[in-house]
TrEMBL record:
Keyword tags: Aminotransferase, Transferase
One Pfam family recorded for the sequence: EpmC
Record protein name field: Diaminobutyrate--2-oxoglutarate aminotransferase
Top-rank taxon, per record: Bacteria
Source organism per UniProt: Microbulbifer agarilyticus
Molecular functions (GO terms): transaminase activity
């Protein structure tokens, strides 16, 4: 991306997402930055827009929240924050294991979306207070899920978004397995 600022990268990500999904006759969903915490807000009445909110203007947050939306099925997309639990920093080992279990698919998609933008990807354990990073098993599971997505495909929303990002950012097809190496996850 060269000298492009993170905010202009984020603006492009938002534009691509909203072009793909904001139309009322489509999925009526908008990606919005500038929030202190990420959150999904489904429209509560007919025709009300669904909002995928991400933290400030961070490209990684935008891609991560878009990935959660792409993973969520139709019923989950009717619920605030998709109906999932969230435990903040300071999780127990058991809570962290559950976090890693449910985060494999969104983080795998986030990696694909980051590649489509020409951006780097960093696995997030999202448990900063403990000082523990992502486990090796978590990294391997994310890498394996990316390999599966590249080989077997993704749902239509994820496919459209990834390919649209690649086109907007002038990147090659992000669904090539060789572009993803386990050792790149640190």
């Amino acid at each position: 991306m060269g000298d492009v600022s993170p905010s202009s990268v984020t603006e492009c990500i938002v534009t691509v997402f909203n072009t793909c999904f904001a139309a009322v006759d489509s999925l009526n969903t908008r990606l919005e930055g500038g929030h202190p915490e990420p959150y999904y807000r489904p429209g509560t009445c007919e025709g009300e827009v669904h909002r995928v909110e991400f933290t400030r203007d961070y490209p990684a947050s935008a891609l991560h929240e878009a990935a959660h939306w792409c993973v969520a099925g139709a019923e989950r997309r009717k619920q605030p924050d998709y109906g999932y639990w969230y435990a903040p920093d300071g999780r127990s080992a058991q809570q962290q294991a559950e976090f890693e279990r449910v985060e494999v698919k969104p983080q795998a998609l986030e990696w694909i979306f980051a590649r489509a933008c020409g951006l780097g990807f960093r696995v997030s354990a999202d448990n900063l207070d403990t000082g523990l990073g992502p486990s090796d098993g978590f990294k391997r599971a994310i890498w394996q899920q990316v390999q599966n997505y590249c080989a077997e495909g993704v749902n239509g929303r994820a496919e459209l978004f990834a390919q649209s990002l690649a086109q907007a950012f002038g990147q090659p097809n992000p669904f090539k397995q060789a572009q993803y190496r386990l050792e790149d996850l640190g």
